[in-house]
Design goal:
alpha+beta, two-stranded parallel sheet, 7 helices, 37% helix
């Protein structure tokens, strides 16, 4: 069943979105999807800090779009009462007829079958090398990971625990949205999303060599992978 949101341009609409995201990292499912893109595109501007959950979600989706993109299909979402803001490349204005005619005249003077100069050959080689290098970079895939981080006991400061986790930085690692999930007996665990570049970051090594050793293990007892999805 599709999820529905109403008038995201208004305070009431943003409040509903903020309440919806209180216990969720994404609009649907456990990874970013087209549903997130639909809602993201319907917001005329980033939610203010007053809407903590919506603002956190918006920043995370914005970062994903800049770094790796979003490939999940989602379950479907309906936006009513908002004017969607298209995400994409604007269509260029139609060229002036006279200018087009002038361009056509100029084309008549171009020798399409002339011999290729040394400069043109060099430029072609450079373009081919750039395309090849770009293809190699794209071969390095990315993954979206949902992780549970468990404290030592109910007296562990969960705010400091999250700060300790997010303080871990390395090339190819991006921390995302998070929330606290009750476990029992007054204990809560931190559930946090992260995006990794597969060739640069090993989740197992991240846990064993960084998250469960000093100084982070002052707050963190253990970590478990809840979901692991290729992007």
């Amino acid at each position: 069943m599709a999820i529905a949101f109403y008038n995201l341009n208004s305070d009431a609409g943003l409040k509903k979105l903020d309440e919806y995201l209180l216990t969720r990292s994404y609009i649907s499912g456990y990874q970013a999807s087209k549903d997130d893109i639909t809602v993201y595109s319907s917001l005329p501007k980033p939610p203010s800090s007053e809407y903590v959950n919506a603002s956190r979600w918006y920043k995370h989706i914005d970062a994903l779009l800049r770094i790796s993109g979003v490939s999940g299909e989602g379950f479907g979402v309906i936006i009513e009462g908002s004017a969607p803001i298209p995400v994409g490349v604007a269509t260029p204005p139609a060229a002036d007829t006279k200018a087009s005619a002038a361009d056509d005249d100029d084309d008549d003077d171009v020798d399409l079958f002339g011999e290729e100069t040394e400069e043109e050959k060099k430029a072609a080689e450079e373009r081919a090398a750039a395309v090849k290098a770009s293809s190699k970079k794209k071969e390095s895939g990315k993954s979206s990971v949902l992780m549970d981080v468990k404290p030592w006991d109910d007296e562990t400061d969960m705010k400091k625990l999250e700060e300790a986790v997010r303080s871990v930085t390395m090339e190819g690692l991006l921390w995302g949205a998070s929330k606290l999930v009750p476990v029992g007996y007054g204990i809560k665990k931190l559930q946090i999303m992260l995006t990794i570049v597969d060739d640069l970051v090993s989740v197992d090594e991240l846990i064993e060599s960084t998250l469960t050793v000093e100084p982070v293990n002052e707050y963190v007892q253990s970590c478990d992978i809840v979901a692991f999805n290729k992007i």
